[in-house]
Amino acid sequence: MLQNLKPLAPDKILQLSQIFNEDYRKEKLDLGIGVYKNDLGVTPIMNSVKKAEKILWLNEETKKYTNLSGEPSYLNAMKKLILADTIDEDRISSVHTPGGTGAIRQGFELIKIASPKSKIWISNPTWPNHISILNYLNMKCEKYKYFDQYSRSLDFDGMLLDLKDAKPGDIVLLHGCCHNPSGVNLNQNQWQELTRFLKRNRLLPFIDIAYQGFGDGLNEDAYGVRLLAKECEELVIAASCSKNFGIYRERTGILFTIGNNKALKELSQNTLAFLNRQNFSFPPDHGGKLVSLILNDKKLKLNWMTELEAMRLNMLKIRHALVKQLEIRSNSNRFSFIGKHRGMFSLIGATKEQVIEMREKHAVYMIEDSRINIASLSEKTVPMLADAIIHVGV
Peptide bond before 383: cis, by omega within 30 degrees of 0? Predict the structure, then answer.
């Protein structure tokens, strides 16, 4: 049997990280993998998470299985964080999943069961795993314009023009905020126009929101998903706690479905629980417990929000520092778009050849599409990146 296996293409981000680790140079930059780092280059455990872990350690009495859909305290806390009081609870079903990736996979499988003929429309570019999972599940997908390579900004007109080819019942996969890999967000007026477009053309939105709080703030970053939840009859949401709680290895995600009545909620909930059972049975509990402890305790939540805001502001500071260093070296403002992007990532517009040259000559590692992780930089390393970008002629 095993001899019939064929080599599979390696994950580009993980492969880049391996090459970086094998680089003997002392001064080097890994801007590939999407984790937040402090000025010391460490991905820290948030103080609020440490406090929650201590509470859990002192009070946890059993390690028996959790509920098939996850603990209600976690599901309800995340529901409030993402959706607030936007819609009636009788419309919402939810399950705890192993990370945001698990939520995306479950969402795609739900669509495959409920609407197998629907095509999934994904932004160009998007997070590579979206395409990889869809291909693995043998689901039809199509790309729509999103990022304008010339201006390094949103091509909103092109986006709507491409989506005019979508048929009623098709699914439109959207990034809730801090678009990966571009860092380009829709503004509130664009979210409103897009919502009207989706309703008019009877398209179902699927939101991937993995960076709430990293862009413009917790509530500001949830504007689009809350608007869609309020205005659309149906909605699918995949969310992650990896980034905004810093609990990457705990694999803490959640999948929501929103219907237009209570009967659909119960039907959806049963299906989501069924998918959990088929794929991994009971969800991992530790991360969900930490999140629910934090969000349900006023002091811990305030502590967490303060830490999260500090991370957000630090990324903005790094963005502006990079723009300044590039302006000095290029004697132009052509890199000002980096300061307008939000979240962890930006596409800087380098060619594949320029990316490889930065890696080989400057020990600066980024994905071949020129996505950089702003959160991996510090004020000390910003000049190193700026030198590399200008030297290769971006």
Answer: no
Strand partners, 153: 148
Neighbours of 357 (CB within 10 A): 17
Cis peptide before 128 (omega within 30 of 0): no
pLDDT tens-digit readout, 167-191:
999 999 999 999 999 999 999 999 9
Q: Where are the domains of the chain?
A: 11-45+312-391, 65-296
Residue 192 CA neighbour count, 13 Å, CB half: 3
Widest pairwise Cα distance in the chain: 62
Taking the model in full, what pTM does it have? 0.96
Write the DSSP assignment of 188-227 as a string of letters. Answer: HHHHHHHHHHHHHTT-EEEEEE--TTSSS-HHHHTHHHHH
Q: Architecture of domain 65-296 in CATH?
A: 3-Layer(aba) Sandwich (3.40)
Active site amino acids: 127, 208, 210, 243
Which residue from 212, 204, 239, 7 is spatially nearest to 120, judged by alpha carbons? 204
Tens-place pLDDT, residues 46-67: 999 999 999 999 999 999 999 9
What is the per-residue pLDDT for 40? 87
CA atoms within 13 A on the CB side of 75: 19
Q: Domain 11-45+312-391 falls in which CATH fold?
A: Aspartate Aminotransferase, domain 1 (3.90.1150)
